[in-house]
Amino acid sequence: MILYPAIDLKDGQAVRLYKGEMEQATVFNDNPAAQARAFVDAGCEYLHLVDLNGAFAGTPVNGAAVEAILADVDVPTQLGGGIRDMATIEMWLTRGISRVILGTVAVENPDLVREAARHFPNQIAVGLDAREGRVATRGWAEETDIMVTDLAKSFEDAGVTAIIYTDINRDGAMAGPNIEATEALARATTLPVIASGGVSSLADLIALRDTGVIAGAISGRALYDGAIDLAAALAALREGA
User: Fold this and answer.
1) Which residues are catalytic?
2) What span, in angstroms and rounded, lies between the C-alpha atoms of 46 and 224?
């Protein structure tokens, strides 16, 4: 199971939100590239970036911070937030992003996801963010009646590389991930599922791994707060593989 350290970008800084609320942002580093370097130096093999402002604006906002990270580290990096057309997808992949995460457009324009996956094989993931199992869009500000499992299964034949599932009510709350819901999603779809939201301890990571069906886990606040030691967590996950 891959552990993805998260760098959430707001106003050019690395922050974490509490349950997806932009007004409840805690700044952890005003130099996101330095934060990325610290994660890589600790041994991470992949980074997870989110342009939070972009998710609300519908277009990239923290591009300078993303490019600074890409210039400073050499591990694969996935990015989500405000990516809603082919031009933006191509732009980020050309600039060095390894995998683009499509969230809002997966609901509003699923044909774009399919087109992108055809044009950019193995470089398109779908981000499904949910409250009580129902998908939310536009920076989690708008809720739908679409069930996460139904939407995930609809992309099984599209060529996407993974589903990134975020339980919004767990995100940034340090209350543990929704293992039951994440495992149920992973068992319901043939696509690899990456867990996000609430991963706050090594025990959480081990529990996710031990389901045997979850491909990865994203953690942010716990790494910044020191609740998870990244190097130790990576070693523990390798030893138990």
Assistant:
1) 8, 129
2) 17
